[in-house]
Amino acid sequence: MGQRMTKSEIEVLSYLTMAATFLMGFIDAYTFLEKDGVFVSAQTGNMIAFSSKLFTGQFSQAAGHITVFIGFSLGAFIGEAVLQKMKRHFLKKYQIFLLIQGSLLLFFALFQQTINDSLMIFLLGFLAGYELTIFRQIGMTTVNDGIMTGNTKNLMTNLFNFLFKKDETAKKNFIHLSLTILLFMIGVGSGSLVVQILPFFCLWFAFLLTIGLYFFISALFKKKFEFSDKKD
């Protein structure tokens, strides 16, 4: 993650990554069920669906998977650019990240009935790429909060190293990766249930979760400055 983080910063980033993992699963379920089988975070699945539809003559359906891929790529690129520009300001940068994310989700929620599906999945793909780039660490373990293939491979690698090499770091990585996969699955399950019961509420829930995280970071930021003032 660049410069060395303090223990409290690692803890905060871990909470944010766990929430982002749940959210990615939640939104993936929404787009898969409501937007013609499109995944916003799992680009391997999109490439499979795109290639299959393209080579079987389903050209219009294939286009949606390219749209989300382009959005995801752009979001990841911009996320990395912003991350590099704001390396030093830990809490402040995550406040800004969450504010941008919350603004996008509010826009989606307010206009979900009128936004063209292609634009919607492009923007949700952008959000997924952005979020997967920003929030990617639990403890000292690097995780991917929306793509479980790499997480599963790393999970088994760390399990092997713990069982046969008695590597304690591998044990911690195994626990963190297991938590990541579990949270993603819970997010997918929760998203699927909400889509069945009240699909209109899905994007509002994602917005409310993001705003809750924003106020959590804001409270920590305020507490940090109050502590600094008392020290002075």
TrEMBL record:
UniProt-listed Pfam families: DUF1275 (PF06912)
**Keyword list, A-Z:** Membrane, Transmembrane, Transmembrane helix
Q: Which residues cross the membrane?
A: 12-33, 62-82, 94-112, 118-135, 174-197, 203-221
Q: Which InterPro entries match?
A: DUF1275
What PANTHER family does the annotation carry? SLR0142 PROTEIN, UPF0700 TRANSMEMBRANE PROTEIN YOAK
Q: What is this protein called?
A: DUF1275 domain-containing protein
Write down the species.
Answer: Candidatus Enterococcus lowellii
Q: What is the lineage of its organism?
A: Bacteria, Bacillati, Bacillota, Bacilli, Lactobacillales
